[in-house]
Every structure is written in structure tokens, then in C-alpha cells.
Write a structure and sequence with these properties.
The protein is built from seven helices and no strands. It is an all-alpha fold. The chain has two domains: about 80 residues, no CATH class; about 45 residues. The longest helix is centred in the C-terminal third of the chain and has 33 residues. The protein is extended, with a radius of gyration of 22 Å. It starts with a helix and ends with a helix.
């Protein structure tokens, strides 16, 4: 869901903030005619650049080089005037901490994704536990794993 929600930045289209993958994908399909091609080109080249530098040498700070290169390219070619979104003013200082208002309306859309994440975490820990239990020759109790 996190990766798919970032498609709006790569494609230059508007995608709603949903907690369901099918709704995100539906917005992406609806937004295909509105794709901003300069943004897609920059996003695609950025991904290729990051993967390429990672394969060459994983110790190179590829993201830092990419940011610098992107700033230079956008300014040199005036891409911000052609619709490429850029970060403008960044507020200084630390925001004032606030306690969130918790309401049933705010919690309701989070219940299904939270259950999904919990079950995936359980299945992952159980599969790792089974692998280790076989290797170390001891019995694994899935009920205890779920409780943990």
C-alpha cells in the first residue's frame, strides 16, 4: 500500500488516500490519461539510477547524488515551469506536539488494515519459527506464537 500510494509522485497524477489497494489501483487506472510525462520520465530515470548505482557499489550515497542531480536538471531545463512539482518552502523548527483526537470515525478505516498487518506479522514469525524449530530440533506451538 505504501509503494502504490507513491505512484502519484511518479506518475504526476492525483490519487486518493485510501487504505485499500484496489481503490488506489482504480485511481491509477483512471489517471492514466492525465499522466504528466516529464514527471514519469524523471521518476523512471530516478529508479533506474538508484538501482544502477546500488549494483555498482552499495556504499555510494545514491539517493544524495540523485537529489542533487534532480535539482540541477529541473532548474537547468525549467521543468518546474512545465508542471513538475517541486518542494518550495520548508517550514523551519519543530512542530508543536499534539495529542491526536481518537474517534470511532478515525479508527474504523484502520481496523481491516490493522488486522491484515497483524496476521501477516504472525504468519511471518511463524514461518521463521518453524524453520528455526526444524533446524534446532524443537517443537513449535503456533498458539503460543500467536499469543506472543
Amino acid at each position: 500500500m505504501i509503494g502504490l500510494s507513491q505512484l502519484k509522485h511518479v506518475l504526476g497524477i492525483k490519487i486518493g488516500t485510501y487504505f485499500q489497494i484496489h481503490l488506489i489501483l482504480l485511481d491509477v487506472v483512471k489517471g492514466i490519461p492525465k499522466i504528466h510525462w516529464f514527471t514519469l520520465f524523471i521518476g523512471g530515470c530516478s529508479i533506474v539510477f538508484l538501482v544502477f548505482l546500488k549494483k555498482i557499489n552499495g556504499k555510494i550515497p545514491a539517493a544524495l547524488f540523485l537529489i542533487i542531480l534532480s535539482i540541477l536538471c529541473v532548474n537547468a531545463f525549467g521543468l518546474h515551469e512545465k508542471g513538475v512539482q517541486i518542494v518550495r518552502n520548508v517550514p523551519s523548527g519543530i512542530p508543536t506536539p499534539l495529542l491526536p483526537t481518537i474517534t470511532l470515525e478515525a479508527v474504523r478505516p484502520l481496523i481491516l488494515p490493522a488486522i491484515t498487518i497483524a496476521l501477516l506479522g504472525f504468519m511471518e514469525s511463524l514461518s521463521i519459527g518453524k524453520t528455526i524449530a526444524e533446524k534446532e530440533k524443537y517443537k513449535l506451538n503456533p498458539n503460543r506464537e500467536l499469543f506472543a
